[in-house]
Amino acid sequence: MSWGRGMGPLMDCLAVAENARSIGCQVAFLCRDRFYEIIKEFDYPIYKVVSPKSPTKLNQSFNTDFPFFQGLGDEKLVKQTIEDEMKAIKNYCPDVVFSWLQFTAYISTKTLGVPLASVGRWTGHPKFTSPMLKGGRFPISATTPLFNQLLKKYNLPSIRDIWELDFIRSDLKIIPGTPELEPGLKELQNSHYVGYLSSGNISKKKLPDRLIDLLPNQHIVFVYLSTKQFLPQDYLPIFKKAFDCSEFKVIVATGLEDMPSRLPTNSTNVQFEHLVSINTLLPKIDIIISTGTRGVSWQAALNGIAHISFPDTDPERYFVASMVERAGAGLTLPDSAFEPKRLLESVRLVYRSRMKEKAKKLGSRLRFLGGPQKTARLLMQKL
């Protein structure tokens, strides 16, 4: 079960699914409609779950109340989601359910008596603190009263805050990190550090020829700004201004969220894409620019790529970007630096640094902990 709006949770779930299938497990997906075509490439059974509308404009709820931003304050949507989950579980009869940011999964699996494994991060723990948050902590989510009503309906224990349903109550906690980076999770029962889950976009689609032509003997910068503080219509022109006359070749991918119907015209130095299968690109990329999501940050480290992050005031992205910067594998910048001149200067600075070497060291530590292969074996133990 993958709930998040962005590609990261889906790629993690796909990596775990592929490894589970390789050791003899049967796997099905429950996901949003925007992900159906991607999942279909891999021939998995797909169960549909209702999709909330994407916000038409950004607001502060995405930093202070992520569950609310995800649409989980909508009673009708949440009830329908639980019904969809239960229908899928009853039909497919899984031995274990794996979830990523699926707050409703605890209700559906506990009600039907199926073990639940969930992705855990320190930033999703109720005790997480951050200088990005007023008072250091997340306020109690506005979605909590609704979920307590539903927990009561299904005879399940109440919660103080909805974040308790992210992974704290799950039977198995899978942590895509290390004990050194996220020591606050070491005391959790049935928790396992696996380093990472997905090391790249595992789509089977080939790169278009125009991107392959960029690769030989070039300085490649890959950009994926995910969701939240930057909107494509705002950031796409900036990269053209920054890199059109530079020594770098830049590939900008918008992803699925807020996808523009038309992309800017490609130039010699800057190529714009909706989605890119980056496995072929990864060995050639020198720098990745992102908003600091865990998935992209770990992809960069696992492939020895220096990373420039723009986490803004997002507590989770700031936490992850800070971890990467402390390891010497990346650079964290404020949104004020997101303009053509500063972007080009920052890329040149990172290119001349030893960050790529430090990224390889961080990536080695993440790989050592087992990744999706270890996760698949842990899930097998629940069968």
From TrEMBL:
Protein name (database record): Glycosyl transferase family 28 C-terminal domain-containing protein
Source organism of the structure: Candidatus Roizmanbacteria bacterium CG_4_8_14_3_um_filter_36_10
